[in-house]
Amino acid sequence: MRNSSADTCSLWRWGVLTILVLVWQCQSSEPSEPEEVVRLWQSYIDRNRFDSARLYSTELARSYVDFLDALVQDDSAEVTYTDLRQLRCVVAGDSAVCSYQIEDELGEYISDTLVLKRIGGRWLVHRVEGFSTPARDTLLPGEEELVFPPADTIPAWKH
For residue range 85-138, what is the model confidence (pLDDT) as tens digits? Predict the structure, then answer.
């Protein structure tokens, strides 16, 4: 007859090991560059996976994701693929401004911009709509925050 406490201990150890391996795999696949986050975030939006998009959004960007989620009331909504052309991110400290072009319904390319913030070591989409990057040569001293907002403008929250 086997010792049931030894079996329980062995099962417990395997369970803990399995959880640790899964956590490690999830952490190692975390996007580390702003460009990766932009592409991942947009792919979630395209596939109507708004809960996943919220994981890569600050509170400000979550309001935009919530708006999209409210527009799409059922799972039968059309899934699209947005090709982000000429995606480039300029990083300054814990902020990144990512510019790209997307093709509209008429086949014309439209420039767009996302602002990301690095919070807790993770890049998150911060500003989505209504943001335009002013030309750097038109900025006066001290106006750099128009392009790269200070970290204290981001509300803190816990996951």
Answer: 999 999 999 999 999 998 887 888 889 899 999 999 999 999 875 544 445 555
Report the SS3 class of residue 24. helix
Alpha helices of 4-153 — where are they, by DSSP H? 4-28, 34-46, 50-55, 59-71
CA distances from residue 158 to 43, 58, 128 in whole angstroms, order as listed: 24, 11, 21
What's the total number of domains in the chain?
2
Domain that holds residue 99: 32-153
Give this prediction's pTM: 0.63
Q: For residue 158, tell me if it sits in a domain.
A: no
Burial 57-69 (b: 16+ CB within 10 A, else e): bbebbbebbeeeb
